[in-house]
Amino acid sequence: MLSPSILSHLLTRLATSLLTLVFASLVVFSTLEILPGDPARLMLGLGASEDAIAALRGQMGLNQPIILRYLTWAGHMLTGDFGRSYTYAVPVRDLIAERLAVSLPLALMALTLSMAIAIPVGLFAAARRGRAPDSAIMGVTQLGVAIPNFWFALLLVYVFAVTLRLVPAGGFPGWSAGIFPAFKSLLLPAIALALPQAAILARVTRSALIETLSQDYIRTARAKGLTQTAILRRHALPNAMIPVLTILGLQFSFLLAGTVIIENVFYLPGLGRLIFQAITQRDLIVVEGVIMVLVAAVLLVNLIVDLAYAFVDPRLDIPR
After folding, report:
1. Best label site of 129, 254, 283, 303, fewest CB within 10 Å?
2. Which helix (H) or strand (E) covers residue 219, if one does?
3. Which UniProt keywords apply (predicted)?
């Protein structure tokens, strides 16, 4: 049961998120409006006929006042109508749903791998603070933070796809081909996304655990004769999860919204590749729709993290 102060905080965060979404919609709409030249002519190219340009201007409502255009566009967004892509000749909503079926599982796989690696590594390093294993782990994680994920992705392709031929080098067969083939095609991209994030999360977990281990209740637990492993797992880790959850929320948002490079390296038909293709094809209607979906996803994840604070540490009156 959530306390009144936590419930009030969550309602405040919900209102703030809605205001942020409105502000983001204004920024996205205004940014595309202030592009030099006629948006319809920009989308169709210099060789387009005047009739085609006039038809696209009518489809986009460019003949209406800018305020009316924004209100119409925002109202359609609220109902799930993101317009129709002139490049693909299908509703943008269908494009996003199709590509999200790749990007969302990829982000979840990468986040799961990141947690599975980082939390045990952070525990191990914190338990051996100042000793050789701790220094070695911190050196490796520093290297993981510094290495660009696209370079790491190319290295993974060369080793596991080209040399060892264990997994495909790129492409996505679709979920209709079966879970295992689809999983294999997402494995290397998930690893390429997960390991740099795991390096960051391991460092945060270690720092949070070291701070927690200096608390009085930990000294009391040691005085009672509990082993270091029991202290870490039963007392230190649960109380160190607040900063870890914060980083997890930020990482999931990055993994969902920041896959443009990785999806292009592996030729995955996800949201990242869709927005890249829409920009190169000057399909501004798709760009607007995808950006707003990503903004909404980031805000939703942040709300979920706020709610998770209360379950991880019920003593919190207001989530940190």
Report:
1. 129
2. helix 216-223
3. Cell membrane, Membrane, Transmembrane, Transmembrane helix, Transport
Number of H helices, E strands in the chain: 15, 0
Cβ atoms of 144 and 198 within 8 Å: the answer is yes
CA distance 20 to 41: 31
The domain ranges of the chain are: 4-78, 92-312
Q: How far apart are CA 4 and CA 126, in angstroms?
A: 35
Q: Give the predicted TM-score (pTM) of the model.
A: 0.83
Each residue of 115-172: pLDDT tens digit? Answer: 999 999 999 999 888 899 999 999 999 998 888 888 889 999 999 999 998 888 888 9
> Which long-range CB contacts under 8 A does 60-68 form with residues at least 24 apart?
60/285, 62/38, 66/33
How far is it, in rounded angstroms, from Cα 200 to Cα 121? 11
What are the phi and psi torsion angles at 286 (to 5°)?
A: -70, -40
Q: Which two tokens stand for residue 203?
A: 């460092």
Q: How far is CA 28 from the centre of its chain?
A: 19
Residue 230 structure tokens? 């029991």
Q: Which single residue is written with the structure tokens 């590749």?
A: 273
**Listed residue (247, 248, 257, 243) closest to 104, CA to CA:** 257
- Which helix (H) or strand (E) segment holds residue 310: the answer is helix 284-312
The CATH number of domain 92-312 is 1.10.3370.10: no
> What is the rounded CA–CA span in Å between residue 127 and residue 306?
28
Report how far Cα 206 is from the mean position of its chain's Cα atoms: 23
